Request: fold
Amino acid sequence: MGEIKKIQPVLLIIAVFSSIETAFDWARLKVESQFGKIAIESEMFRFDQFTNYYTADMGQALYKQLWGFQNLIDPSTLTAIKLQTNQWESDFKNENQTGTVRPLNLDPGYVDLGKLILASTKDHAHRIYLSNGIFAETTLIYRQKKWEPLPWSYPDYQSECSQKFLYQCRNVLKSTREKNSTACRETEI
Reply:
């Protein structure tokens, strides 16, 4: 029988995209009030250069930004986080009558040392069911000192902008775990 080990905390990320400029500030207030300070931000980039999948629901000129959080999370909380971000999407739509079907998209996931995991409400062959209608997928793997795509990896996560962000996330995760480990050892002495 395999030995069950304590799970290491991971670095929460949330991808935010919208065609409405004020949506980013609104979302920042929500996520920081719930999950703590944003430690790392990608550059804002044109999301619709990668796909037109969301155009019908979200409009033209979609911009996207990735946020990484200072506070690490237990990976088992991903379902609750996805349910919360879905609620915020609904709240934003109700508060901002834009005429857009989906004016804000918040996609949570996490960075671990060897992988990027994203949450989804959509099932597919490569996704694993978590609970409460939420699935998870490994979107990228970290191997031989680089982030590598899988056959289903979204093109925007393979972009230079996203890759730079993910390297920063991985470095913050490593250093935070090391600090926490050192702090734990010092309190045991």
Summary: The chain is about 35% helix and 30% strand. The helical segments are 21-35, 55-58, 78-95, 160-188. The chain has a mean pLDDT of 92. The radius of gyration is 17 Å.
